[in-house]
Amino acid sequence: MLTWVTPFDVCCFLDNQGYPSTSSFDYILAAGAIDSCTASAGAAFPKLRTWAADRNDWVFGHFGFELAAETENIPQGSSADEIGFPDLFFFIPEIVIVAQKDQVRIGSFHPGPDQIHEAIIHTVPTEPDRLPIPVFTPRFTRDEYLSTVTDLRRHILRGDCYEINFCMEFFARSVFPDPLATWWALSGASPNPFSAWYRVNDRSLFCASPERFLQKKGNTLLSQPIKGTAPRVPSDPAADRLQSQSLYHSRKDRAENVMVVDLVRNDLSKICIPGTVRVTELYGIYAFPQVYQMISTVAGEIKPNVDWTDAVKATFPMGSMTGAPKNSVLRLIRRYERSRRGLFSGAVGYIDPAGDFDFNVVIRSLLYNGEKGYLSYQVGSGITWYSDPAAEYEECLLKAEGIRKAFTSPPPG
To answer: Do the Cβ atoms of 164 and 152 come closer than 8 Å?
Structure first.
């Protein structure tokens, strides 16, 4: 099926990778665009709201991190974004394929579902090759990273903020990996519940995210911020269990997590019925291929007549990728980070015909500009006064382990 979709200029494949509790489907594939909305930060949300108002259909797309300039009224960043996704892009697909349990549903404008099914089953699957190993260059040396974290801790000591998510980019130039092979390699090395292969012309995202940004189901909004990471030890079950227990009891990680939970509660309170915002799970420990994550869940009942675009605008960018207070840390992010985040730290997802939606957090991801041959990933961690700069650096490398493994593991058989 993914071999069949490769000729489409615009497509979005969302896969829960066998984590059935996270969504009501196994995967959704959207292919082709019969209509679309592209916007830059400034008036992107009003433009999207107007465009989407009379389109009661499946809609797929993304919110880029640079929309923070609009939602939080901060200056645009001056750093380069060499990937070049639009700040906002949404499209109505020509074809939608939804797999749920034992059934697959196909919807299309043209051709008909039977023709699409025939085309897919007669497409010869492409055998994935081993990916060439690019040489990634960091925007920060280790010493520069440690020095910057020290500077950020001084801001925290002065009271400029409580916690800040600080990210750095690793990039490679003049590389041209096969997109389908890249997706298979990353999803095989690091299967995660909010995975996505997403393409807009010659820009591609290969995403192995464990984090949900915002979901609407009926009248309920739900956000599941991640703060707190510990490495897995799959070769030693006893040591692996100890890692999980240590993360659960970590005072530093709990402090980071509860700060973000409070921020999410505040964001949801802007658009939810008073008294309905609640924390349904605090400090949950979840296992993923390379790491344990501390995840909390915050839910609320959306106010009547709140448009879905306004729900996203009120909560974007997500607190787990900014810190607190949000406006202050976004200004520090602009000052200290050396790359625009672009689609990284943004969100990819869908709105269904009933008006429900689900968006991930774009982390643990490769981003690719096929025109330039520019391949990139970014990683970060939450910095508090109690942060040890060297430990934060190691956490960043740990979060990139799935990406590194994608380039060193044999292709899936």
So the answer is: yes
CB 332 within 8 A of CB 161: yes
Query: Phi and psi of 123, rounded to 5°?
Result: -80, 125
Query: What is d(CA 350, CA 19) in angstroms, rounded to the nearest whole number?
Result: 18
Statement: the pTM of the whole predicted model exceeds 0.90: yes
Q: List domains and CATH numbers for the chain.
A: 2-213+308-380+401-408 (3.60.120.10)
Under DSSP, the state recorded for 317 is S
Q: Is the backbone peptide bond immediately before 317 cis, with ω within 30 degrees of 0?
A: yes
For 320-332, b/e burial (b = at least 16 CB within 10 A) is bbbbbbbebbbbb
Distance, in Å, from the CA atom of 194 to the CA atom of 208, rounded to the nearest integer, reads 7
Helix (H, G, I), strand (E, B) or coil at 381: strand
Closest CA to 29 of 1, 69, 64, 62: 1
The token duo for 307 is: 């448009």
Query: Using an 8 Å Cβ cutoff, are 309 and 45 in contact?
Result: yes
Distance CA 218, CA 222 (A): 11
CA–CA gap between residue 307 and residue 69 (Å, rounded) = 21
pLDDT tens for each residue of 242-286: 999 999 999 999 999 999 999 999 999 999 999 999 999 999 999
Question: How many other β-carbons are positioned within 10 Å of the β-carbon of residue 183?
Answer: 27
Count of Cβ atoms closer than 10 Å to residue 353 Cβ: 12
**Measured between alpha carbons, how far is 20 from 319 in angstroms, rounded to an integer?**
25
Tokens read off for 92? 């109505």
